[in-house]
Amino acid sequence: MNKKTSMLFGASMVSMLLISACTGGGKEPAKEANQPKDVPPPAAADAPVKVSTDPVTLKFAINFSWLSEEERQKYIVDPVKKKYPNISFEWINLTETSLDKVIATGVIPDIVQSASPIINTYTDLGLADNMEPLIKSHKFDTSKISKAGLDAVKTTSGNDYLIGLPWTIQYSATYINKDIFDKFGVGYPKDGMTWEEMKDLSIKLTRKEGETQYRGLEPDVPSRLVSVLSAGYVDTKSNKASLDTEPWKRVFTLMKSIYDIPGNENYRWVPSAFDQFSKDRTLAMYPGLNYLPNFKSINGINWDIVQYPQFKEKPNISMQVDEWVLHVTKQSKYKDQAFQVISSILSDEVQTEMSRNARFPIVTTKSVQDELAKNLPYVQGKNLKAFFLSTPAAPVPPSKYAAYGSTVSQEAFKKVMKEGVDINSALREADEKLNKNMLESK
Protein backbone atom coordinates (compact mmCIF):
# COMPACT_ATOMS: atom_id res chain seq x y z
CA MET A 1 0.00 0.00 0.00
CA ASN A 2 1.09 3.33 -0.70
CA LYS A 3 2.12 3.95 2.64
CA LYS A 4 0.27 2.38 2.68
CA THR A 5 -1.57 -0.51 4.96
CA SER A 6 -10.03 -3.31 5.80
CA MET A 7 -15.82 -6.15 11.59
CA LEU A 8 -17.00 -9.19 11.86
CA PHE A 9 -18.42 -9.38 15.15
CA GLY A 10 -19.93 -12.20 16.87
CA ALA A 11 -23.13 -10.55 17.79
CA SER A 12 -25.32 -11.84 20.52
CA MET A 13 -28.83 -11.89 19.20
CA VAL A 14 -31.08 -9.88 21.46
CA SER A 15 -33.88 -12.09 22.70
CA MET A 16 -37.27 -10.57 22.21
CA LEU A 17 -39.35 -11.28 25.28
CA LEU A 18 -43.01 -11.42 24.47
CA ILE A 19 -44.90 -10.52 27.62
CA SER A 20 -48.43 -11.81 27.83
CA ALA A 21 -50.47 -9.38 29.84
CA CYS A 22 -53.38 -11.07 31.50
CA THR A 23 -56.24 -8.74 32.10
CA GLY A 24 -59.09 -9.44 34.42
CA GLY A 25 -61.89 -7.59 36.12
CA GLY A 26 -61.07 -4.47 34.04
CA LYS A 27 -57.71 -4.06 35.76
CA GLU A 28 -54.62 -2.87 33.86
CA PRO A 29 -51.66 -5.29 33.70
CA ALA A 30 -49.19 -4.96 36.52
CA LYS A 31 -45.89 -3.21 35.77
CA GLU A 32 -42.61 -5.02 36.38
CA ALA A 33 -41.20 -3.47 39.49
CA ASN A 34 -37.79 -5.08 39.62
CA GLN A 35 -36.52 -4.65 36.05
CA PRO A 36 -32.85 -3.50 36.18
CA LYS A 37 -32.38 0.09 35.12
CA ASP A 38 -29.65 -0.71 32.62
CA VAL A 39 -31.72 -3.29 30.77
CA PRO A 40 -33.68 -1.65 27.95
CA PRO A 41 -37.24 -2.70 27.18
CA PRO A 42 -37.79 -5.08 24.28
CA ALA A 43 -37.57 -3.44 20.87
CA ALA A 44 -40.32 -3.53 18.32
CA ALA A 45 -39.76 -6.02 15.52
CA ASP A 46 -39.03 -3.27 13.00
CA ALA A 47 -36.88 -1.13 15.29
CA PRO A 48 -33.14 -1.31 15.94
CA VAL A 49 -31.99 -3.07 19.06
CA LYS A 50 -32.06 -0.95 22.22
CA VAL A 51 -28.56 -0.43 23.58
CA SER A 52 -27.60 0.49 27.13
CA THR A 53 -26.57 4.11 27.60
CA ASP A 54 -24.38 3.34 30.60
CA PRO A 55 -20.83 4.74 30.27
CA VAL A 56 -18.49 2.34 28.49
CA THR A 57 -14.86 2.51 27.36
CA LEU A 58 -14.11 0.57 24.19
CA LYS A 59 -10.66 -0.76 23.38
CA PHE A 60 -9.93 0.26 19.79
CA ALA A 61 -6.88 -1.27 18.06
CA ILE A 62 -5.67 0.75 15.08
CA ASN A 63 -2.43 1.58 13.37
CA PHE A 64 -1.69 5.23 14.22
CA SER A 65 0.58 5.58 11.19
CA TRP A 66 -2.44 4.88 8.99
CA LEU A 67 -4.73 7.40 10.61
CA SER A 68 -3.43 10.55 12.27
CA GLU A 69 -4.63 11.80 15.64
CA GLU A 70 -6.43 14.63 13.86
CA GLU A 71 -8.31 12.17 11.65
CA ARG A 72 -9.15 9.86 14.54
CA GLN A 73 -10.64 12.83 16.35
CA LYS A 74 -12.50 14.08 13.29
CA TYR A 75 -13.92 10.81 11.96
CA ILE A 76 -14.26 8.71 15.10
CA VAL A 77 -14.10 10.48 18.47
CA ASP A 78 -16.09 13.66 17.84
CA PRO A 79 -18.97 12.10 15.84
CA VAL A 80 -19.32 9.27 18.37
CA LYS A 81 -19.25 11.69 21.31
CA LYS A 82 -21.96 13.77 19.68
CA LYS A 83 -24.29 10.84 19.06
CA TYR A 84 -23.25 8.44 21.83
CA PRO A 85 -21.82 10.52 24.70
CA ASN A 86 -21.62 7.43 26.92
CA ILE A 87 -18.92 5.87 24.71
CA SER A 88 -15.22 6.66 25.14
CA PHE A 89 -12.08 5.00 23.80
CA GLU A 90 -8.90 3.36 24.98
CA TRP A 91 -6.58 3.32 21.98
CA ILE A 92 -4.23 0.46 21.16
CA ASN A 93 -1.55 1.66 18.75
CA LEU A 94 -0.67 -1.12 16.31
CA THR A 95 2.23 0.96 15.03
CA GLU A 96 4.10 0.25 18.26
CA THR A 97 3.09 -3.39 18.59
CA SER A 98 1.35 -6.11 16.61
CA LEU A 99 -2.12 -7.41 17.27
CA ASP A 100 -0.90 -10.90 18.13
CA LYS A 101 1.38 -9.45 20.82
CA VAL A 102 -1.52 -7.46 22.24
CA ILE A 103 -3.63 -10.62 22.45
CA ALA A 104 -0.75 -12.48 24.11
CA THR A 105 -0.92 -10.06 27.05
CA GLY A 106 -4.54 -10.97 27.63
CA VAL A 107 -5.92 -7.71 26.26
CA ILE A 108 -8.74 -8.20 23.77
CA PRO A 109 -9.83 -5.12 21.81
CA ASP A 110 -13.50 -4.45 21.21
CA ILE A 111 -12.83 -2.96 17.77
CA VAL A 112 -9.95 -3.75 15.43
CA GLN A 113 -9.08 -2.06 12.17
CA SER A 114 -7.47 -4.28 9.55
CA ALA A 115 -6.96 -3.92 5.80
CA SER A 116 -8.29 -6.26 3.13
CA PRO A 117 -4.86 -7.24 1.70
CA ILE A 118 -3.67 -8.28 5.19
CA ILE A 119 -6.95 -9.25 6.82
CA ASN A 120 -5.37 -12.58 7.78
CA THR A 121 -3.42 -10.77 10.51
CA TYR A 122 -6.82 -10.45 12.20
CA THR A 123 -8.55 -13.67 11.18
CA ASP A 124 -5.62 -15.87 12.23
CA LEU A 125 -6.01 -14.82 15.88
CA GLY A 126 -9.44 -16.27 16.63
CA LEU A 127 -11.08 -12.87 17.04
CA ALA A 128 -13.36 -12.90 14.02
CA ASP A 129 -17.05 -13.69 14.08
CA ASN A 130 -20.06 -13.44 11.82
CA MET A 131 -21.12 -9.81 12.00
CA GLU A 132 -24.32 -10.15 9.99
CA PRO A 133 -26.63 -10.84 12.98
CA LEU A 134 -25.33 -7.63 14.52
CA ILE A 135 -25.89 -5.72 11.28
CA LYS A 136 -29.44 -7.06 11.17
CA SER A 137 -30.29 -6.29 14.78
CA HIS A 138 -29.12 -2.68 14.33
CA LYS A 139 -31.10 -2.34 11.09
CA PHE A 140 -27.96 -1.11 9.36
CA ASP A 141 -28.34 -0.57 5.61
CA THR A 142 -25.33 -2.07 3.82
CA SER A 143 -26.70 -1.24 0.36
CA LYS A 144 -25.00 2.16 0.47
CA ILE A 145 -21.58 0.53 0.86
CA SER A 146 -19.54 -0.35 -2.21
CA LYS A 147 -20.50 -3.86 -3.33
CA ALA A 148 -16.89 -4.48 -4.34
CA GLY A 149 -15.87 -3.44 -0.84
CA LEU A 150 -18.32 -5.80 0.86
CA ASP A 151 -17.42 -8.68 -1.44
CA ALA A 152 -13.75 -8.10 -0.69
CA VAL A 153 -14.32 -8.64 3.03
CA LYS A 154 -15.84 -12.04 2.29
CA THR A 155 -13.26 -13.04 -0.30
CA THR A 156 -10.20 -12.03 1.64
CA SER A 157 -11.46 -13.59 4.88
CA GLY A 158 -12.51 -16.80 3.12
CA ASN A 159 -16.11 -16.60 4.33
CA ASP A 160 -19.52 -16.27 2.74
CA TYR A 161 -20.52 -13.79 5.43
CA LEU A 162 -19.20 -10.47 6.69
CA ILE A 163 -16.70 -10.46 9.54
CA GLY A 164 -16.34 -6.70 9.34
CA LEU A 165 -17.38 -3.58 7.46
CA PRO A 166 -15.07 -1.50 5.28
CA TRP A 167 -15.03 2.24 5.91
CA THR A 168 -12.53 3.74 3.46
CA ILE A 169 -11.14 2.44 0.19
CA GLN A 170 -8.27 3.26 -2.12
CA TYR A 171 -9.03 4.52 -5.60
CA SER A 172 -6.48 4.91 -8.36
CA ALA A 173 -5.89 7.33 -11.20
CA THR A 174 -3.12 8.55 -13.50
CA TYR A 175 -1.33 11.73 -12.45
CA ILE A 176 -0.12 13.83 -15.36
CA ASN A 177 2.39 16.68 -15.49
CA LYS A 178 0.79 18.98 -18.05
CA ASP A 179 3.93 21.11 -18.19
CA ILE A 180 5.82 18.26 -19.88
CA PHE A 181 3.00 17.72 -22.37
CA ASP A 182 2.98 21.44 -23.16
CA LYS A 183 6.77 21.54 -23.43
CA PHE A 184 6.78 18.93 -26.18
CA GLY A 185 3.47 19.90 -27.80
CA VAL A 186 1.76 16.61 -27.00
CA GLY A 187 -1.97 16.37 -26.32
CA TYR A 188 -3.07 15.36 -22.84
CA PRO A 189 -4.25 11.80 -22.16
CA LYS A 190 -7.96 11.12 -21.78
CA ASP A 191 -10.11 9.00 -19.51
CA GLY A 192 -10.59 5.44 -20.72
CA MET A 193 -7.15 4.83 -22.22
CA THR A 194 -5.60 1.37 -22.27
CA TRP A 195 -2.06 0.62 -21.13
CA GLU A 196 -1.02 0.23 -24.76
CA GLU A 197 -2.47 3.63 -25.69
CA MET A 198 -0.76 5.29 -22.75
CA LYS A 199 2.51 3.57 -23.64
CA ASP A 200 2.29 4.87 -27.22
CA LEU A 201 1.67 8.37 -25.87
CA SER A 202 4.66 8.09 -23.55
CA ILE A 203 7.01 7.50 -26.49
CA LYS A 204 6.36 11.10 -27.60
CA LEU A 205 7.22 12.39 -24.12
CA THR A 206 10.37 10.39 -23.40
CA ARG A 207 13.06 12.84 -24.48
CA LYS A 208 16.34 14.26 -23.31
CA GLU A 209 16.78 18.01 -23.27
CA GLY A 210 20.22 19.18 -22.26
CA GLU A 211 21.13 17.19 -19.16
CA THR A 212 17.53 16.43 -18.27
CA GLN A 213 16.00 13.10 -19.21
CA TYR A 214 12.20 13.19 -19.32
CA ARG A 215 10.26 9.96 -18.92
CA GLY A 216 6.82 9.42 -20.38
CA LEU A 217 5.36 6.73 -18.14
CA GLU A 218 6.10 4.86 -14.90
CA PRO A 219 3.89 1.77 -14.54
CA ASP A 220 4.72 1.14 -10.84
CA VAL A 221 5.47 -2.14 -9.06
CA PRO A 222 4.44 -5.45 -10.71
CA SER A 223 2.12 -6.46 -7.87
CA ARG A 224 -0.16 -3.49 -8.47
CA LEU A 225 -0.59 -4.23 -12.15
CA VAL A 226 -1.15 -7.93 -11.61
CA SER A 227 -3.82 -7.11 -9.03
CA VAL A 228 -5.89 -5.62 -11.86
CA LEU A 229 -6.00 -9.16 -13.26
CA SER A 230 -7.06 -10.48 -9.83
CA ALA A 231 -3.89 -12.53 -9.50
CA GLY A 232 -1.61 -12.89 -6.51
CA TYR A 233 1.50 -14.60 -5.23
CA VAL A 234 -0.04 -17.81 -3.90
CA ASP A 235 -2.87 -20.08 -5.00
CA THR A 236 -4.54 -20.45 -1.63
CA LYS A 237 -6.46 -23.56 -2.76
CA SER A 238 -3.35 -25.55 -3.63
CA ASN A 239 -1.11 -23.55 -1.28
CA LYS A 240 1.45 -23.28 -4.08
CA ALA A 241 3.23 -20.27 -5.52
CA SER A 242 1.45 -18.73 -8.51
CA LEU A 243 4.15 -16.49 -9.99
CA ASP A 244 4.87 -18.69 -13.01
CA THR A 245 1.47 -17.98 -14.52
CA GLU A 246 -0.03 -16.08 -17.44
CA PRO A 247 -1.13 -12.96 -15.51
CA TRP A 248 2.41 -12.40 -14.21
CA LYS A 249 3.88 -13.01 -17.66
CA ARG A 250 1.39 -10.53 -19.11
CA VAL A 251 2.36 -7.86 -16.59
CA PHE A 252 6.12 -8.44 -16.91
CA THR A 253 5.83 -8.24 -20.70
CA LEU A 254 3.88 -4.97 -20.53
CA MET A 255 6.22 -3.39 -18.00
CA LYS A 256 9.31 -4.41 -19.95
CA SER A 257 7.87 -2.89 -23.13
CA ILE A 258 7.38 0.40 -21.29
CA TYR A 259 10.88 0.42 -19.79
CA ASP A 260 12.36 -0.57 -23.15
CA ILE A 261 11.36 2.80 -24.58
CA PRO A 262 14.73 4.55 -25.09
CA GLY A 263 15.19 6.99 -22.23
CA ASN A 264 12.40 5.50 -20.12
CA GLU A 265 14.40 2.62 -18.66
CA ASN A 266 15.41 4.36 -15.42
CA TYR A 267 12.39 3.02 -13.58
CA ARG A 268 11.26 4.29 -10.20
CA TRP A 269 9.04 2.42 -7.79
CA VAL A 270 7.20 3.72 -4.76
CA PRO A 271 7.87 6.09 -3.13
CA SER A 272 10.53 7.47 -5.48
CA ALA A 273 8.18 7.31 -8.47
CA PHE A 274 5.99 10.03 -7.00
CA ASP A 275 9.09 12.03 -6.10
CA GLN A 276 10.22 11.85 -9.72
CA PHE A 277 6.80 13.15 -10.73
CA SER A 278 6.37 15.87 -8.10
CA LYS A 279 9.90 16.92 -7.10
CA ASP A 280 12.17 16.16 -10.05
CA ARG A 281 9.25 16.87 -12.41
CA THR A 282 10.73 14.71 -15.12
CA LEU A 283 7.95 12.10 -15.21
CA ALA A 284 4.94 12.88 -17.40
CA MET A 285 2.48 10.17 -16.33
CA TYR A 286 2.27 8.19 -13.11
CA PRO A 287 -0.63 5.77 -12.51
CA GLY A 288 -1.00 5.29 -8.77
CA LEU A 289 -3.13 5.47 -5.66
CA ASN A 290 -4.49 8.50 -3.80
CA TYR A 291 -1.78 11.16 -3.65
CA LEU A 292 -4.14 14.13 -3.41
CA PRO A 293 -3.10 15.15 0.14
CA ASN A 294 0.56 15.13 -0.95
CA PHE A 295 -0.01 18.04 -3.31
CA LYS A 296 -0.60 20.41 -0.40
CA SER A 297 3.13 21.09 -0.17
CA ILE A 298 3.81 20.94 -3.92
CA ASN A 299 3.84 24.22 -5.78
CA GLY A 300 4.67 25.31 -9.30
CA ILE A 301 3.52 22.22 -11.16
CA ASN A 302 0.59 22.14 -13.56
CA TRP A 303 -0.87 18.73 -12.83
CA ASP A 304 -4.13 16.90 -13.32
CA ILE A 305 -5.48 13.36 -13.28
CA VAL A 306 -7.14 11.00 -15.73
CA GLN A 307 -8.59 7.52 -15.34
CA TYR A 308 -6.24 4.69 -14.39
CA PRO A 309 -5.12 2.83 -17.56
CA GLN A 310 -6.90 -0.42 -18.29
CA PHE A 311 -6.21 -3.78 -19.88
CA LYS A 312 -8.28 -4.33 -23.02
CA GLU A 313 -9.95 -7.38 -21.53
CA LYS A 314 -10.62 -5.57 -18.24
CA PRO A 315 -12.35 -2.30 -19.22
CA ASN A 316 -12.84 0.20 -16.40
CA ILE A 317 -11.13 -2.08 -13.88
CA SER A 318 -8.32 -0.76 -11.69
CA MET A 319 -6.17 -2.23 -8.94
CA GLN A 320 -7.81 -4.74 -6.64
CA VAL A 321 -9.77 -3.62 -3.62
CA ASP A 322 -7.54 -2.11 -0.94
CA GLU A 323 -9.71 -1.02 1.95
CA TRP A 324 -9.66 -0.59 5.71
CA VAL A 325 -12.02 -2.83 7.60
CA LEU A 326 -13.53 -2.42 11.06
CA HIS A 327 -14.22 -5.52 13.13
CA VAL A 328 -16.05 -6.14 16.39
CA THR A 329 -14.22 -8.98 18.11
CA LYS A 330 -15.96 -12.18 19.08
CA GLN A 331 -14.82 -11.73 22.69
CA SER A 332 -16.08 -8.16 23.14
CA LYS A 333 -18.58 -7.62 25.95
CA TYR A 334 -19.82 -4.44 24.28
CA LYS A 335 -20.69 -5.57 20.77
CA ASP A 336 -23.70 -3.29 20.40
CA GLN A 337 -21.79 -0.20 21.50
CA ALA A 338 -18.91 -1.17 19.22
CA PHE A 339 -21.32 -1.41 16.32
CA GLN A 340 -22.71 2.01 17.16
CA VAL A 341 -19.19 3.35 16.68
CA ILE A 342 -18.87 1.66 13.31
CA SER A 343 -22.30 2.86 12.17
CA SER A 344 -21.27 6.39 13.13
CA ILE A 345 -18.13 6.15 11.00
CA LEU A 346 -20.25 4.88 8.11
CA SER A 347 -22.85 7.64 8.41
CA ASP A 348 -23.26 10.00 5.48
CA GLU A 349 -22.12 12.87 7.71
CA VAL A 350 -18.75 11.30 8.52
CA GLN A 351 -18.26 9.83 5.06
CA THR A 352 -18.95 13.25 3.55
CA GLU A 353 -16.38 14.91 5.79
CA MET A 354 -13.85 12.23 4.86
CA SER A 355 -14.59 12.77 1.19
CA ARG A 356 -14.10 16.54 1.53
CA ASN A 357 -10.65 15.89 2.96
CA ALA A 358 -9.69 13.41 0.20
CA ARG A 359 -10.06 10.35 2.41
CA PHE A 360 -12.02 8.18 0.00
CA PRO A 361 -15.47 7.15 1.26
CA ILE A 362 -16.69 3.57 1.09
CA VAL A 363 -20.30 4.61 0.51
CA THR A 364 -21.37 5.00 -3.09
CA THR A 365 -23.82 7.81 -2.41
CA LYS A 366 -23.31 10.30 -5.25
CA SER A 367 -23.72 13.34 -3.02
CA VAL A 368 -20.88 12.03 -0.83
CA GLN A 369 -18.59 11.27 -3.77
CA ASP A 370 -19.31 14.69 -5.26
CA GLU A 371 -17.75 16.28 -2.18
CA LEU A 372 -14.35 14.72 -2.89
CA ALA A 373 -11.51 17.03 -1.87
CA LYS A 374 -13.78 20.09 -1.51
CA ASN A 375 -11.76 21.13 1.56
CA LEU A 376 -8.49 21.07 -0.42
CA PRO A 377 -8.22 24.32 -2.40
CA TYR A 378 -5.14 23.13 -4.26
CA VAL A 379 -7.06 20.36 -6.07
CA GLN A 380 -10.03 22.43 -7.20
CA GLY A 381 -10.61 22.25 -10.94
CA LYS A 382 -8.91 18.87 -11.27
CA ASN A 383 -10.56 15.95 -13.04
CA LEU A 384 -11.52 14.26 -9.76
CA LYS A 385 -14.28 12.17 -11.33
CA ALA A 386 -11.50 10.08 -12.87
CA PHE A 387 -11.09 8.27 -9.55
CA PHE A 388 -14.64 6.91 -9.71
CA LEU A 389 -14.62 5.84 -13.37
CA SER A 390 -12.92 2.53 -12.57
CA THR A 391 -14.12 -0.29 -10.35
CA PRO A 392 -11.52 -2.00 -8.15
CA ALA A 393 -10.69 -5.51 -9.32
CA ALA A 394 -11.91 -8.50 -7.35
CA PRO A 395 -9.35 -9.26 -4.64
CA VAL A 396 -7.51 -12.50 -4.07
CA PRO A 397 -7.38 -14.16 -0.65
CA PRO A 398 -4.37 -12.86 1.29
CA SER A 399 -1.44 -15.07 2.15
CA LYS A 400 1.07 -14.84 4.97
CA TYR A 401 3.71 -15.39 2.29
CA ALA A 402 2.72 -12.24 0.40
CA ALA A 403 5.63 -10.16 1.72
CA TYR A 404 8.18 -12.68 0.46
CA GLY A 405 6.21 -13.07 -2.76
CA SER A 406 6.45 -9.33 -3.33
CA THR A 407 10.20 -9.43 -2.75
CA VAL A 408 10.94 -12.31 -5.13
CA SER A 409 8.63 -10.95 -7.84
CA GLN A 410 10.39 -7.58 -7.79
CA GLU A 411 13.78 -9.31 -7.79
CA ALA A 412 12.64 -11.34 -10.79
CA PHE A 413 11.67 -8.25 -12.74
CA LYS A 414 14.95 -6.54 -11.93
CA LYS A 415 16.78 -9.57 -13.34
CA VAL A 416 14.76 -9.19 -16.52
CA MET A 417 15.69 -5.52 -16.84
CA LYS A 418 19.23 -5.46 -15.43
CA GLU A 419 20.60 -8.88 -16.34
CA GLY A 420 18.68 -9.69 -19.50
CA VAL A 421 17.07 -12.81 -18.04
CA ASP A 422 14.05 -13.85 -20.09
CA ILE A 423 10.66 -13.41 -18.47
CA ASN A 424 9.72 -17.10 -18.34
CA SER A 425 12.97 -18.07 -16.64
CA ALA A 426 12.80 -15.20 -14.15
CA LEU A 427 9.25 -16.05 -13.09
CA ARG A 428 9.96 -19.76 -12.91
CA GLU A 429 12.92 -19.10 -10.59
CA ALA A 430 10.83 -16.74 -8.45
CA ASP A 431 8.08 -19.35 -8.25
CA GLU A 432 10.57 -21.96 -7.05
CA LYS A 433 11.98 -19.58 -4.43
CA LEU A 434 8.54 -18.81 -3.07
CA ASN A 435 7.57 -22.49 -2.91
CA LYS A 436 10.81 -23.26 -1.08
CA ASN A 437 10.17 -20.47 1.40
CA MET A 438 6.66 -21.77 2.03
CA LEU A 439 7.93 -25.29 2.70
CA GLU A 440 10.66 -24.08 5.04
CA SER A 441 8.19 -21.93 6.96
CA LYS A 442 5.87 -24.83 7.78
TrEMBL record:
Protein localization: Cell envelope
Family to which this protein belongs: Belongs to the bacterial solute-binding protein 1 family.
Protein name according to UniProt: Extracellular solute-binding protein
Keywords on record: Signal, Transport
Signal peptide stretch: 1-26
Keyword Metal-binding listed: no
Organism domain of life: Bacteria
Gene Ontology CC annotations of this record: cell envelope
Region spans: Disordered: 27-48
